[in-house]
């Protein structure tokens, strides 16, 4: 059996709001609850379990998305007034074309740096 990531914990001041932001922006099914967690299934049984903490430590979460879905997601971000950046340091607005694909970074309500990309890093030759 291959090793797969099953879940990770996402620190959040408001787990329901953090999970709702993610599901709405990425177009995922509504979150569920399991014990103290608000659970977002991102793909094939891999979950992001939002857990309440008073002072979240920002992390980075990157999502590989189909090219046509990239446009849909960036439009959702634009409609919400969420700034997007070509780099994780937030120095260049917009998106990048790394590895022959497209990518953009944006912040979650808890300050996590989220990224969507259409090609994995290193895949462009």
From TrEMBL:
Gene3D superfamilies, per database record: 2,3-Dihydroxybiphenyl 1,2-Dioxygenase, domain 1
Protein name stated in the entry: VOC family protein
One Pfam family it belongs to: Glyoxalase
PROSITE patterns: VOC
Region annotation Disordered: where it falls in the sequence: 81-110
Source superkingdom: Bacteria
VOC domain location: 4-119
CDD domains named among the record's database cross-references: ChaP_like (cd08351)
InterPro entries, per database record: Glyas_Bleomycin-R_OHBP_Dase, Glyas_Fos-R_dOase_dom, VOC_core
Species this chain originates from: Actinomycetospora lemnae
